[in-house]
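Why does residue order matter? Because the sequence determines the fold. Keep that principle in mind as you read this record.
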Amino acid sequence: MSDARQDLLDALRARGLLADDGACSVFGQPAWREAPAGHEPQALMDAGALQRRLVECASGTAPMGEDLCAAWVERAFSRLGLGYVSGDARELCDGFCHLTDTRELLVGMIVAVARHPYGVGGWDHGHVGLYVGDGVVMDCVGGRVRRVPLALWLSVYGVASEPRWGWLGAIGLG
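Structure:
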C-alpha cells in the first residue's frame, strides 16, 4: 500500500490539495487514512448471510451515470427486498453514517463523505460506496463500478471531510 500512499500524496500535491506539512490536505484532513492495528474492519468470511447477499447484489448491479453513486448503492440495496432508500450521497452520509472507527465497519455498510473536491457534484453532494469486506469498498464512478482498497478510498475521498459509515436506512444487516 506504500506505493498507493505515495502516488496519492503526489497526486494531491500536483492538484494543490496537499498542505505544506505533507501529512494533511489543505482542508485540514489527514492526507492518508488507514485502519490502525486492532481496528480492522469486518472480513467478508465473518459476515452473515444477508451481508454476503448484499455483496452479491452489488456485484450484479449495473453501473449508473455520472454523479449517481448514491443511486447505484440504493439500487444494490433495494435488490435485497428490504425497501428503497433515496437521497444523494451527502443526505445518506448525514442521515445514516455516524461511525468513524474502522473496527465498527461491517460488510454491507455504506461508506460516505459529505463533500470532496473532485468536481461540482462531489463538492455539493459528496460520494458514497459500499463496504464489501476484506478492506474493499465498491462504488460507482464515471459510469463504472469498481473495487477500491479501503485505505485508498478513505484517503482520496476524505481530503475535504471525514469519511463515515453506517447502515443504509438504519437497517442493520449484521
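The first strand starts at residue 110 and ends at 113.
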